[in-house]
């Protein structure tokens, strides 16, 4: 049964990209944020939808924590995180009364909120909607894929770190994509090496090579490696605009290349 | 934003699922079926089963990728170094079961019979009863392990299950695995504060959990999630043994100078523990050997005994043992999860699968 896209809040969104992993802590939210900023830097209007209900990281990364969410006729108004209003964000983080408040929900309630996030946020006109997800292959992921299916997402970027323990989980995520009919745009290997700031020796803190091998094994494109950069971490922690502050960082080059590949990915024929 | 409808009658009330306020609540059908009223019989069965288990420790975070499984595995290894101590390691991360790989047990099927694929009906309903129950996979005579990873026939198999099915698996693991006489049961959890966490606390409610060890990394993006996990522990009255700050500094193998890969921009775990008055069990630095040992399924405590990370781990594990020895195993508290209306979802009783 073909799902028909209803006109509505996603009607003005040209491309939807999901950021998945199977593994926690590999940098999905970081990559989501940086991809959004990289797309903005080449003139695109981008929305970020943070469906990690238990651990919503993105508001803080973009210095938007505590911002109020307003309602309009079409639903929730996403929060703009920049002056030029090129990047908008919706996250459960905005809806919590206290930042340390835990969202201790079982699956059905999470599913209900994710459906609402997909259909009831008034995104307006967007070139790209980047959807950040929590780790795993469960309620949130199924809800997001089902809710977004009628809008023919461009696909998913799957993030891993180089080591086998991560790759072990991410293989399962690739199976999830196959089973749910979600195209994989490619694999990103994050935290790929650390360059000591004192002596420039590069250490493979989380092993090496896993991401590229995984892409090859699964027959999907390898989009690139992003190295560990403490300046990046500090900047994101403090909500700085990383792309503007660190144009010469090796991480910046990697992310821009990844953004370019996303721009070149053709939309799927529905 | 409200987590339950205005005037939610409560999941245990006679009006559950039937009141006007219930319209549109995603739990309406569940409550109306009466599932919210009767306590799950499994809770008593698990209490019985857990009588042979002296100490139960949950390893939690809120954040993914901070080293829960790494820590759980090495806690198990360290405790099992004493051959007179019986150790059990239970991995309830259903979607991302890392423990088999970290323990070097990948490819083991255990005694559960045919494997499980995500397409099929849950295999546990078919291999359910066999005398004393499922057999854990034994790494050593005194170290048994159970994980959904052992039930999967291929490393590519994905477990694409919604909450209720995951809860069923966890119930099975607690009720049907024949752990035998155990000194320490360590439960490794996935990131978050959701089905798995609620279920394990609810199913072990009558059996008394010694406490939770909470893992974090130094940066605020982790601490932010960990504070939520601590709040979850308080809500369900789960004692906190303490916090471990992992990936705390990196020493370059070449020049030996220290860098902060994950900077503690808001004071790290130390500041958070001081604020929340929770013990900081210790800080573990980043050592590339840890990842390597885990990938190869070996204990890094044995591989690199002189690493500062090993020293830190051993000190933390000793503190955990000391905490547990202060808790008499036969002491049983009535620590049923309270029904905190408006605060938590499907609170006091486990939902039916």
From TrEMBL, chain A:
Binding site for ATP: 22-29
Gene Ontology biological-process annotations: iron-sulfur cluster assembly
Co-factor note (free text): Binds 4 [4Fe-4S] clusters per heterotetramer. Contains two stable clusters in the N-termini of NUBP1 and two labile, bridging clusters between subunits of the NUBP1-NUBP2 heterotetramer.
Residues at which [4Fe-4S] cluster binds: 196, 199
CC annotations in GO: axoneme; centriole; centrosome; cytosol; nucleus
Location, primary (coarse class): cytoplasm
Cofactor: [4Fe-4S] cluster
MF terms (GO), sorted A to Z: 4 iron, 4 sulfur cluster binding; ATP binding; ATP-dependent FeS chaperone activity; metal ion binding
Subcellular location: Cytoplasm, Cytoskeleton, Cilium axoneme; Cytoplasm, Cytoskeleton, Microtubule organizing center, Centrosome, Centriole; Nucleus; Cytoplasm, Cytoskeleton, Microtubule organizing center, Centrosome
InterPro entries to which the protein is assigned, alphabetical: Mrp-like_CS, Mrp/NBP35_ATP-bd, NUBP2/Cfd1_eukaryotes, P-loop_NTPase, YlxH/NBP35
Keywords: 4Fe-4S, ATP-binding, Cytoplasm, Cytoskeleton, Iron, Iron-sulfur, Metal-binding, Nucleotide-binding, Nucleus
Subunit structure of this chain's protein: Heterotetramer of 2 NUBP1 and 2 NUBP2 chains. Interacts with KIFC1. Interacts with NUBP1.
Role of this protein: Component of the cytosolic iron-sulfur (Fe/S) protein assembly (CIA) machinery. Required for maturation of extramitochondrial Fe-S proteins. The NUBP1-NUBP2 heterotetramer forms a Fe-S scaffold complex, mediating the de novo assembly of an Fe-S cluster and its transfer to target apoproteins. Negatively regulates cilium formation and structure.
HAMAP family in the cross-refs: Mrp_NBP35, NUBP2
Assigned protein family: Belongs to the Mrp/NBP35 ATP-binding proteins family. NUBP2/CFD1 subfamily.
Protein name: Cytosolic Fe-S cluster assembly factor NUBP2
Organism encoding this protein: Myotis davidii (David's myotis)
Lineage: Eukaryota, Metazoa, Chordata, Craniata, Vertebrata
């Amino acid at each position: 049964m073909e799902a028909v896209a209803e006109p509505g809040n996603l009607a003005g969104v040209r491309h939807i990209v999901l950021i998945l992993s199977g593994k926690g802590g590999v940098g999905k939210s970081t990559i989501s944020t940086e991809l959004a900023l990289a797309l903005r830097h080449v003139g695109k209007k981008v929305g970020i939808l943070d469906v990690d209900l238990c651990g919503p990281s993105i508001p803080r990364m973009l210095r938007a924590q505590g911002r109020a969410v307003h309602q309009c006729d079409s639903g929730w108004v996403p929060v703009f995180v920049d002056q030029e209003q090129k990047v908008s964000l919706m996250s459960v983080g905005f809806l919590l009364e206290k930042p340390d408040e835990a969202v201790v929900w079982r699956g059905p309630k999470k599913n209900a909120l994710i459906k609402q996030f997909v259909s009831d946020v008034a995104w307006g006109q967007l070139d790209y909607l980047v959807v950040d997800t929590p780790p795993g292959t469960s309620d949130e992921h199924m809800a997001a894929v089902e809710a977004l299916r009628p809008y023919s997402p461009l696909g998913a970027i799957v993030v891993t770190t180089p080591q086998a323990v991560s790759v072990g989980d991410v293989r399962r995520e690739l199976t999830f994509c196959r089973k749910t009919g979600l195209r994989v745009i490619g694999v990103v290997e994050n935290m790929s090496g650390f360059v000591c700031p004192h002596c420039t020796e590069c250490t493979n803190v989380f092993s090496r090579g896993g991401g590229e091998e995984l892409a090859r094994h699964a027959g999907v494109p390898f989009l690139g490696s992003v190295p560990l950069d403490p300046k990046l971490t500090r900047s994101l922690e403090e909500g700085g605009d990383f792309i503007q502050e660190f144009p010469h960082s090796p991480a910046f080059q990697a992310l821009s290349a990844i953004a370019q590949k996303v721009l070149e990915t053709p939309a799927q024929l529905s | 934003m409200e987590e339950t409808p205005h005037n939610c009658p409560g999941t245990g009330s006679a009006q559950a699922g039937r009141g006007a306020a219930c319209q549109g609540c995603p739990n309406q059908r569940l409550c109306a079926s009466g599932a919210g009223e009767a306590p799950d019989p499994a809770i008593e069965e698990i209490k019985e089963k857990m009588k042979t288990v002296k100490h139960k420790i949950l390893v939690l975070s809120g954040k993914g990728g901070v080293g829960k499984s790494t820590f759980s595995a090495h806690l198990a290894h360290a405790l099992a170094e004493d051959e007179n101590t019986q150790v059990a390691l239970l991995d309830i991360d259903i979607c991302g079961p890392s423990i088999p790989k970290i323990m070097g047990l990948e490819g083991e099927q255990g005694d559960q019979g045919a494997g499980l694929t995500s397409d099929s009906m849950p295999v546990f309903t078919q291999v359910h009863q066999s005398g004393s129950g499922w057999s854990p996979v034994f790494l050593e005579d005194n170290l048994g392990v159970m994980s959904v990873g052992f039930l999967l026939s291929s490393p590519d198999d994905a477990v694409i299950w919604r909450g209720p099915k995951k809860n069923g698996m966890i119930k099975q693991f607690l009720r049907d695995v024949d752990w035998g006489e155990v000194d320490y049961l360590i439960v490794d959890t996935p990131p978050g504060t959701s089905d798995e966490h609620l279920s394990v606390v609810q199913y072990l409610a009558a059996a008394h959990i010694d406490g939770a060890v909470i893992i974090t990394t130094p940066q605020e993006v982790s601490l932010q999630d960990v504070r939520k996990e601590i709040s979850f522990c308080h809500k369900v009255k789960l004692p906190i043994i303490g916090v471990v700050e992992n990936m705390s500094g990196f020493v370059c193998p070449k020049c030996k100078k220290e860098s902060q890969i994950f900077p503690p921009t808001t004071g790290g775990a130390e500041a958070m523990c001081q604020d929340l008055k929770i013990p900081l069990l210790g800080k573990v630095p980043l050592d590339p050997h840890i990842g390597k040992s885990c990938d190869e399924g070996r204990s890094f405590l044995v591989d690199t005994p002189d690493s500062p990370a090993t020293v830190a781990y051993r000190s933390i594990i000793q503190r955990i043992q000391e905490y547990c020895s202060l808790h008499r195993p036969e002491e049983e508290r009535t620590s049923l999860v309270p029904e905190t209306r408006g605060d938590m979802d499907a609170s006091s009783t486990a939902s039916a699968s």
